[in-house]
Specification:
With 229 residues, the chain is α/β, with parallel strands linked by helices. The protein is built from nine helices and six strands; from the N terminus they run βαααααβαβααβαββ. Helix 1 (20-35) packs across helix 4 (87-101) and helix 2 packs antiparallel against helix 3. InterPro entries: HAD-like_sf, HAD-SF_hydro_IA, HAD-SF_hydro_IA_YjjG/PynA, HAD_2, HAD_sf, PGP-like_dom2, Pyrimidine_5'-ntase_YjjG.
């Protein structure tokens, strides 16, 4: 069923439009080669991905700072593999990862198609918990920057999704109202519950078909947004 009265559509970036896992894996492959890291690459990724997710949860909750996240997720992944590595190299890999991450810019299937479909009818925006400079490079290098009227990130607001302040800031920047806005994202806690708290409509991007949440509008391919918008 189509959502009525919507004027402004807000997207999350990572894991929603920008294929973070694919781009991140390619970045690690590149910086491992640059720095001569001989660890088992697949084993590293299998440890790193869930550890990174846990660090981002702590970051959203204000329990770790940016630098602790960047160092800790790498250090913990190598420790879980029992791979010995100097702290100085962890810092080097952390810096290289940020420097090279936006050089890979795979988007999820139908990202450009759905943005082309939506842009003539809605004002499009991004709300992201990612870091300012990194996120802006991702948007520009993947050539989707021209679709979005505003980009709100957690560094500019000082809080992270699901804090209501970031959604309210984004709507103020966009000059729109919650009753006419919809938030589209892959993180149920940060994107969906956060947006619902401020009165926004929501669509859960459930790429992995996570069970539950049956009462929430959801899609498993971005092109399915045509059902709602």
């Amino acid at each position: 069923m189509k959502l009525k009265g919507i004027t402004d559509v807000f997207f999350d970036l990572d894991h929603t439009l920008w294929d973070f896992d694919k781009n991140s894996a390619l970045t690690f492959d590149k910086i491992f080669k640059i720095n001569g890291i001989n660890a088992d690459f697949d084993a590293f990724l299998s440890e790193y991905v869930p550890i990174n997710e846990q660090y981002w949860k702590l970051f959203r909750e204000g329990k770790v700072e940016k630098e602790a996240l960047r160092f800790g997720r790498l250090n913990d992944a190598f420790s879980a593999m029992n791979h010995s590595i100097e702290a100085s190299m962890i810092h080097k890999l952390s810096d290289d990862y940020i420097a090279h991450l936006s050089s890979f810019n795979y988007l999820f299937e139908n990202t450009v198609e759905i943005l082309n479909y939506l842009q003539p009818h809605y004002n499009l925006h991004i709300i992201t918990n990612g870091f300012d400079k990194v996120q802006q490079k991702k948007i520009e290098n993947s050539k989707i920057d021209l679709y979005f009227k505003t980009v709100t990130n957690s560094e500019m607001v000082g809080v992270k999704k699901p804090d209501p302040k970031i959604f309210n800031h984004a709507m103020q920047l966009a000059n729109c109202h919650a009753s006419k806005s919809v938030m589209i994202g892959d993180n149920f806690e940060a994107d969906i519950l956060g947006a619902q708290k401020v009165g926004m409509e929501t669509v859960f991007v459930n790429f992995h078909n996570i069970p539950g949440n049956a009462n929430v509008k959801q899609i498993d391919n971005l092109i399915q947004l045509k059902k709602y918008l």
